[in-house]
Write a structure and sequence with these properties.
Length: about 375
């Protein structure tokens, strides 16, 4: 029986990402480090898939990841080529995003979400080996990404983005392995808090003393982000209830959770273009981003346009998952699209996550640092 608690976590992460991109409120990154939560959920699901399918799980996951990405490329790449993007061999990364695909200036901004798919792809490819190492040497394997992040931050500041992100986020992915194997749920609460509280305090202390250009925004402080996020993930996984049937007691709420889980990739890929375009449009109409009315108008408009995108493009996720395509999944409360989860020792994460995990970066719209050469990762 699937545990809707994990569906709810994923739903909250999706909503938090979109709201943060619209508002730019830095406190949201501290209140809910959405990207680490999403990577942890994905890691748990990947461990389950590897146990079930072996290395074939890698191909299955890529099959569910790439079609929605290809649809975006089919629409935006020709538009960028017609507006100044120079053809090059790097366009191949719009087929398989092992590195940042090339983009022109406006494309780099509205398609900045692609960094997450790039990282997700690498994390999937690393998982068969990582899971074997984790099960043999769990603590050293879990610590390795954070040691890598320290090396990058203090000794190799010009490291490639993927290398930095392995240090920043792969620890959360490995915590997903721990959740799947039941290690976190078997920890006593005393031990759980004894680990999470000092790690979180160290992260918070680093954030408070190393502010970035946006103040206390997690995205500007990688080391603080990593420490705070690992503490957060430890607690939300380690204290997870065995079930959350109350999610479906109010049918509209349960249906919303289901739809956002089954269409998370569509929401992530399409919300940022709407955020950028509506920001410019509403500012031109006198609705400033800093005003309450301006923010409310942006949130409402983005929500409506994302809903339209879900209806128009979400069926691609169904085809990628080999489900019958539908406009809105989850017509029966408590039975989300994607089938029944394969239970794990640590509690089922939910099969719909297999198509739902890849998403957008926590990125406040800003001028891309990498320019036309590729997609930027100015914030997450």
């Amino acid at each position: 029986m699937r545990n809707r608690y994990y569906d709810l976590l994923r739903c909250l992460a999706i909503v938090r990402v979109v709201v943060y991109h619209v508002t730019g409120w830095a406190f949201l990154t501290l209140a809910f480090p959405a990207m680490s939560v999403m990577f942890a959920l994905a890691g748990s699901l990947m461990a389950s898939s590897l146990d079930r399918w072996g290395t074939a799980a890698v191909g299955r996951r890529l099959r569910r990841l790439l079609p929605s990405f290809w649809l975006v490329a089919l629409i935006f790449v020709p538009a960028m080529l017609l507006t100044g993007l120079a053809p090059s061999w790097r366009l191949v990364f719009w087929v398989l995003p092992l590195a940042d695909p090339p983009a022109n200036p406006w494309g780099a901004l509205v398609l900045s979400v692609i960094w997450y798919l790039r990282d997700y792809l690498w994390f999937v490819l690393l998982s068969p080996l990582a899971l074997r190492l984790f099960r043999r040497w769990p603590v050293p394997t879990l610590l390795a990404p954070y040691l890598l992040l320290g090396v990058v931050e203090f000794g190799y500041p010009d490291a490639p983005g993927v290398l930095r992100d392995v240090g920043l986020y792969y620890g959360a992915w490995l915590l997903g392995f721990a959740q799947h194997d039941g290690l976190l749920r078997r920890m006593s609460r005393r031990l759980l808090f004894a680990v999470a509280v000092p790690v979180g305090a160290a992260g918070l202390g680093w954030i408070l003393t190393h502010q970035g250009p946006r103040g206390y925004d997690l995205n500007d402080v990688p080391l603080g982000n990593a420490l705070w996020s690992v503490a957060f993930v430890l607690l939300v996984f380690g204290l997870a209830p065995s079930a959350a049937a109350w999610v479906d007691r109010w049918a509209p709420f349960g249906r919303t959770v289901t739809v956002l889980n089954s269409r998370a990739l569509t929401v992530y890929l399409w919300h940022m273009p709407f955020v950028i375009v509506l920001g410019e449009l509403l500012s031109g109409w006198g609705l400033a981003h800093s005003s309450a009315l301006g923010l409310a108008a942006r949130l409402a408009a983005v929500a409506v346009l994302v809903a339209v995108a879900v209806v128009l493009f979400g069926w691609v996720e169904d085809l990628a998952a080999r489900r019958p395509p539908c406009l809105l999944p989850g017509g029966t409360a408590g039975a989300p699209s994607g089938g029944t989860a394969r239970a794990s020792t640590g509690g089922p994460v939910g099969a719909s996550a297999d198509a739902a995990q890849p998403g957008a970066e926590d990125l406040v719209p800003s001028t891309p640092t990498s320019g036309p050469a590729g997609l930027s990762s100015t914030g997450r």
